[in-house]
């Protein structure tokens, strides 16, 4: 009996290749400036055009500044890469939501908010966090530039079907514990390689209870446990989110689409290659202590010893880089930066959550706090709700849309040696700038850290709020 | 893509797990718009300090050389940047040996003729010990036979690779050539389905 993943995958197989590979048809292809130039060059060298330009959407996100976005990009290489995207899209006839466009933003934020991401589709992007879109019950995964070129040329990729894993989270999350904590908890249990070779379906009452924003946060980080992607069965929450969005189907098309989407959830007797079940009540607010997202723990825990998941050499290297030690308590530890943004946690709900916590408070002296909405549309909505003022009054900077301090590619970087509590998805060495020390957390924990100037258990703050 | 058949060489050891692509090639070097020249910045922040002085890192140690990069489990996790495979290849490596690879990295490597060789954790441990005792130890990767041989100890280990990819590597073919040859089937697929995706 088929799973959600089987149903979507099998409906997109064009042909089988002897030896186990399949030609998989791709419905939607998202591109950005970093991983597309070499692919466009490849097409030029072969003298071929795009197979289906109507199935591609482009945006600029990784290299864009988040201050004074109306001015030309100061850094010459970043500017060149963004300009090249513009030229390539014009030459090949691709719809581009570039800098200055009202739809511009992080590629994984704009797909869903425009109604491009839908249940039952296959979607790729030259970006590992394409897994985000699986929140809608789509098969969405990151690909390399050679495959970007393949999809441009043929609308297909050649792949063997991944294995299937289901992760059930049952019960109710504690107050102050969010989707981000849920996924950091799961990754801490399974490690950064725990999902390798698999597509993960998230299920269980705690997952079903999440909003679309929360589901996107969960699926976004599937790649951090090594899974090809993650997905969640579409339900009324999904349909309500999509209905009425810019490119969503309308009228009879909408009715037909929803009828189809209702057939997608995993059959009751379906079998997975691997299955795990966790209790939502066991999940605390999470932080990371090391240099990969699997090195996470409850905010009140002590940094654990080396284990099967993180060997001696890796732990030693991580502790050295972070200037922390095994057995150390991080709750109460002073920090320097707070970054609220990235494709994991930069949607309107994330900003509302963090905004509610900082409202009427001030960030601690010496702390730099930046809030970066994931897209122009999120920024617009936040401003309409007065959230920009809430953050600015509290002492945060409220910026323009982009990837920002999630990766040290644009102007927004964390200086060497500084601790940054970040709502992004990767705490790798140098991810936020050379020498930067990243502590991953939820928007609530990050906002609370900014106010306190140190790492705190947001459950205490939250009790007061509620 | 250059064809790959067999390779006998010394190896550079990197016995750390979960080496992510941000270490292999940091984001700030992803601004180039061609595929060439990334080798210069391979493991940039592990190789050089802020002032560009060489650090104590295996790639700076003249004792170690060779066409194989031997790495701990889960090599290439993180970002999908193909630049990581390009950088390793541009630096001069032809194969990476580990006990397992992150999926996207493995695919990217294969698409560029950089061979990811998956061996058992035991064989990998033995190889690391061999290099530690004798940096001049040689290893053979034989794609035709799908074997990895520790020439010092004589241990021979098989490694998996799918038949289609093997043929591509041996002949230097790209997936794109194959996919372009499927144009008719793709068209038939598009014509024959109910599409709610666009
Ligand atoms: S926000 Fe970060 S993780 Fe997301 S697409 Fe941008 S750089 Fe990648």
Automatic annotation (TrEMBL), chain A:
Keywords: 4Fe-4S, Amino-acid biosynthesis, Branched-chain amino acid biosynthesis, Iron, Iron-sulfur, Leucine biosynthesis, Lyase, Metal-binding. Pathway: Amino-acid biosynthesis; L-leucine biosynthesis; L-leucine from 3-methyl-2-oxobutanoate: step 2/4. It is an enzyme of class 4 (lyase). Its EC number is 4.2.1.33. CDD domains: IPMI. It holds the Pfam family Aconitase. Binds 1 [4Fe-4S] cluster per subunit. InterPro entries: 3-IsopropMal_deHydase_lsu, Acnase/IPM_dHydase_lsu_aba_1/3, Acoase/IPM_deHydtase_lsu_aba, Aconitase_4Fe-4S_BS, Aconitase_4Fe-4S_dom, IPM_dehydratase_rel_enz, IPMI_cat. [4Fe-4S] cluster binds at residues 343, 403, 406. Residues 6-453 form the Aconitase/3-isopropylmalate dehydratase large subunit alpha/beta/alpha domain. GO terms for molecular function: 3-isopropylmalate dehydratase activity. Its cofactor is [4Fe-4S] cluster. It catalyses: (2R,3S)-3-isopropylmalate = (2S)-2-isopropylmalate. Catalyzes the isomerization between 2-isopropylmalate and 3-isopropylmalate, via the formation of 2-isopropylmaleate. Belongs to the aconitase/IPM isomerase family. LeuC type 1 subfamily. PANTHER family: 3-ISOPROPYLMALATE DEHYDRATASE, HOMOACONITASE, MITOCHONDRIAL-RELATED. Heterodimer of LeuC and LeuD. HAMAP family: LeuC_type1. This is 3-isopropylmalate dehydratase large subunit. It comes from Neolewinella maritima.
UniProtKB/TrEMBL annotation, chain B:
GO terms for molecular function: 3-isopropylmalate dehydratase activity. It comes from the Bacteria. Pathway: Amino-acid biosynthesis; L-leucine biosynthesis; L-leucine from 3-methyl-2-oxobutanoate: step 2/4. It catalyses: (2R,3S)-3-isopropylmalate = (2S)-2-isopropylmalate. Keywords: Amino-acid biosynthesis, Branched-chain amino acid biosynthesis, Leucine biosynthesis, Lyase. Pfam families: Aconitase_C. It is an enzyme of class 4 (lyase). Belongs to the LeuD family. LeuD type 1 subfamily. Heterodimer of LeuC and LeuD. Catalyzes the isomerization between 2-isopropylmalate and 3-isopropylmalate, via the formation of 2-isopropylmaleate. This is 3-isopropylmalate dehydratase small subunit. It comes from Neolewinella maritima. The lineage of its organism: Bacteria, Pseudomonadati, Bacteroidota, Saprospiria, Saprospirales. The gene is leuD1.
């Amino acid at each position: 009996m088929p799973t959600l993943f089987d149903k979507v995958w099998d409906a997109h197989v064009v042909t089988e290749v002897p030896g186990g590979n399949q030609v998989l048809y791709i419905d939607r292809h998202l591109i950005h400036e970093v991983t597309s130039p070499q692919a466009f060059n490849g097409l030029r060298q072969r003298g071929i055009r795009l197979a289906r330009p109507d199935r591609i959407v482009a945006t600029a996100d990784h290299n864009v500044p988040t201050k004074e976005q109306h001015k030309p990009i100061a850094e010459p290489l970043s500017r060149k890469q963004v300009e090249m995207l513009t030229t390539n899209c014009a030459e090949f006839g691709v719809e581009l939501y570039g800098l200055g466009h009202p739809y511009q933003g992080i590629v994984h934020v704009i797909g869903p908010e425009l109604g491009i991401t839908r249940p039952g589709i296959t979607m790729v992007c030259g970006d590992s966090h394409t897994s985000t879109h699986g929140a809608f019950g789509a098969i969405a995964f990151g690909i390399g530039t050679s495959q970007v070129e393949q999809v441009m040329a043929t609308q297909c990729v050649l792949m063997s079907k991944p294995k299937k894993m289901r992760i059930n989270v049952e019960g109710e999350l504690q107050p102050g514990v969010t989707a981000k904590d849920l996924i950091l908890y799961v990754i801490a249990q399974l490690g950064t390689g725990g999902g390798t070779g698999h597509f993960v379906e998230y299920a269980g009452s705690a997952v079903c209870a999440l909003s679309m924003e929360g589901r996107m946060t969960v699926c976004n980080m599937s790649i951090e446990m090594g899974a090809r992607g993650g997905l969640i069965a579409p339900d009324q929450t999904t349909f309500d989110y999509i209905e009425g969005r810019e490119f969503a189907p309308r009228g009879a098309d909408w009715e037909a689409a929803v009828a189809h989407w209702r057939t997608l959830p995993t059959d009751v007797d379906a079998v997975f290659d691997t299955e795990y079940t966790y209790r939502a009540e066991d999940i605390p607010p999470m932080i990371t202590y090391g240099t990969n997202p699997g090195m996470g723990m409850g905010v009140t825990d002590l940094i654990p010893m080396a284990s099967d998941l993180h060997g001696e050499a890796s732990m030693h290297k991580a502790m050295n880089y972070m200037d922390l030690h095994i057995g150390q308590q991080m709750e109460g530890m002073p920090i320097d930066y707070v970054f609220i943004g990235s494709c994991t946690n930069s949607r309107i709900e994330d900003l509302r959550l963090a905004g509610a916590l900082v409202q009427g408070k001030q960030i601690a002296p010496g702390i730099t706090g930046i809030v970066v909405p994931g897209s122009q549309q999120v920024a617009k909505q936040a401003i309409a709700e007065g959230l920009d003022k809430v953050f600015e009054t509290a002492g945060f900077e409220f910026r323009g849309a982009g990837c920002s301090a999630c990766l040290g590619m644009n102007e927004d970087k964390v200086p060497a040696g500084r601790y940054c509590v970040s709502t992004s998805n990767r705490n790798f060495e140098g991810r936020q700038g050379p020498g930067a020390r990243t502590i991953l957390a939820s928007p609530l924990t990050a906002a609370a850290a900014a106010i306190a100037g140190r790492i705190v258990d947001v459950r205490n703050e939250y009790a007061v709020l509620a | 893509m250059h064809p790959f058949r067999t390779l006998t060489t010394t190896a550079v050891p990197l016995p750390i797990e979960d080496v992510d692509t941000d270490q292999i090639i940091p984001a700030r070097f992803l601004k180039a718009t061609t595929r060439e020249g990334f080798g210069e910045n391979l493991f940039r922040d592990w190789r050089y300090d802020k002032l560009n002085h060489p650090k104590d890192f295996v790639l700076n140690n003249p004792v170690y050389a060779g066409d194989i990069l031997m790495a701990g489990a889960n090599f290439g996790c993180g970002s999908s940047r193909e630049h990581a495979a390009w950088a390793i290849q541009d630096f001069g490596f032809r194969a990476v040996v580990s006990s397992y690879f992150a999926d996207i990295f493995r695919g990217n490597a294969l698409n560029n003729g950089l061979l990811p060789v998956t061996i058992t954790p035991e064989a990998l441990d033995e190889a690391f010990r061999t290099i530690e005792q004798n940096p001049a130890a040689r290893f053979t990767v034989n794609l035709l036979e799908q074997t990895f041989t520790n020439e010092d100890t004589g241990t021979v280990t098989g490694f998996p690779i799918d038949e289609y990819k093997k043929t591509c590597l041996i002949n230097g073919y790209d997936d794109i050539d194959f996919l372009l040859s499927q144009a008719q089937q793709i068209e038939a697929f598009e014509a024959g389905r109910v599409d709610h995706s666009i």
